[in-house]
Amino acid sequence: MDGLEKLENVQRTIHFLRSSGICEADPDAERFLADFAFFLVQGGSQLNLTSKCQLISQNMSKISSSLGALQSFLDGGIQIEEQEKVCADDKANERPSSSLFGDEAVVCLDSMMRSNSSLEDFCRSYFMFHNMDANHPETVFKYLPLLSFTESFIYQLDSLNEKLLHMPRNASVSDSCFEDDVESSLDAKFSIMLGKQPFKPLLVILERFGLLSNRIEEELRSGEEYWSLERKLCHALANNKEISIHDVMKAIRLKSFDYRVLNLLLYQLKGEPVNDLHMNFLSVSELLVEVSDDLFDYEEDILENSFNILRMFVKYYGSSSASVMMAKFITEEEEKYAQLSQLLPSDLFTMYQKRCEEATKEGAKRTGGSPLGTWVIPPVIKVENAFRSEFFDCDSKLR
Questions:
Q1: Between residues 53 and 291, which one has the greater pLDDT?
Q2: pTM of the predicted model as reported, rounded to 2 decimal places
């Protein structure tokens, strides 16, 4: 970690500690606390945060009484340590360093596997808008590496964001318990990672290949904004605080940013100008799909404390009006979908409708916004905490 990056992490940690009511008048003491907190949440150990804290608590008195002897031991070992460092530097100069990974964009296998279904759906649903046939392997594999890498990178960041949102799965879940969990040092780690230009490594890769455009950058910023709104709204719901309907509507419209990034990237890969009519039509379709997914996942999203538009409508409009307002919103968006579909070439829209039907038959959740069938709005849950408690109670008894 270079000096500037280390200093930035220290400043972020100090800011977080201050916001949590942990501050010291002495700057040296405050810096020590920040270094210590950041050390605790760093990776590189199989121990979780709770185990680390327990170890420190159990052994602090022994460590304190032995610090003098430890200092003497370390002072005597400085010369040996410097010699070992010289040897290590000589070895490092013999070949390229194998240490990981700096600011280089890297994705893990789990993220690639999790993103695979979305990537398949993108190819089958969006390639037709680029005069491409997703059934031809040579067409898919020509563009697959960068499309797959980009979607996997986004999924990887999204998994970090999810860890900020998911509520502890225990039999007794309270607002105060969740608030404490969100404000814990473990979550501070993910806040630091998400807050520090999370897409910068991906932007560097795309720019290196000459594929970065202003619109791709804009959509990636939309992704950061969506995650921020998701955390803000879900934290508010978990702690029974008021929410803004403006934030809700903005979040649902930003949610499919990854599909728009992939679509814009495909235009760049093919060296073709962006078709704004296609982008606008697909954006409305994406929104309807997200709403359909949220209705399907309503109860699960409450348990996981994930963003869900029906959850937000229940909070903002109340349990008696939420379903009516949801139906009104869906109707308005379906009208936009119908209007834009009339502007598409008839053969293209027919292919897209066929793809929607295929996805529905396959049981895929992404069905093109469900314009083909009827909408089912599930019964709303008035008190989420009671629903969670009842679920976790039953779940624990079954184990």
A1: 291
A2: 0.69
